[in-house]
């Protein structure tokens, strides 16, 4: 396989977790996706909470997909649960569907790197069970890199990961009343 030849036959799929209360979990995962895509890997980004819409990353990744189909982004969620106008069972159903989508993608062998964006958040808010996520990790082919993002990653997930980074809040513009900036926050 081309990927193994390029990296000296030592492909070792990693379980990577980005968690913590500071900004940068999703954007670091998207940075990895870009790096992997740039190096010829086949990449899928599955968003568990976001519902599509006018986000910069969607437009950026759509351009990459158009340039080369090895980059896919799917938004399977129903928006932020905190806003409260979507009934909880809708969120739960969307999360279950995203989980099934993730499983199908993981076992398909069609990807080298899959980002499960906000999957930790989906567990934290009770939309998914931690066991469901552990089952995904167990189903992972040995060469597949999997990135899981979101605050408050469950200890069971951290225990199974190879690489865990905690973003720590030092300062955030929201604290000074500065509104979300296009291109930085969305
Ligand atoms: P990003 O997508 O910018 O990498 P993130 O994935 O680390 O951020 P999430 O927990 O997914 O952050 O939160 C999504 C949004 O909330 C982002 O727009 C982010 O800027 C904002 N945010 C993140 N951390 C904080 C914080 N500590 N206080 C206020 N807003 C925050
Ligand atoms: Mg995020």
Short synopsis of the structure:
This protein is of the alpha/beta class. 40% of the residues lie in helices and 16% in strands.
Structure description:
This is Cob(I)yrinic acid a,c-diamide adenosyltransferase. Keywords: Transferase. Its EC number is 2.5.1.17. This protein has helices at residues 2-6, 25-38, 56-67, 88-108, 119-124, 130-139, 155-160, and strands at residues 15-19, 43-47, 71-75, 113-117, 145-149, 163-166. The protein is built from seven helices and six strands, in the order αβαβαβαβααβαβ. Helix 4 (88-108) packs parallel to helix 6. The protein has one domain (11-148): P-loop containing nucleotide triphosphate hydrolases (Rossmann fold). The relative contact order is 0.23. The protein has a six-stranded parallel sheet with strand order 3-2-4-5-1-6, sandwiched between helices. The protein is α/β, with parallel strands linked by helices. Strand 2, helix 3 and strand 3 (71-75) form a beta-alpha-beta unit. The radius of gyration is 16 Å and the shape is globular. Helices cover 40% and strands 16% of the residues. Adenosine-5'-triphosphate binds next to helix 2. Magnesium ion (MG) binds at residues 25-26, 118, 149.
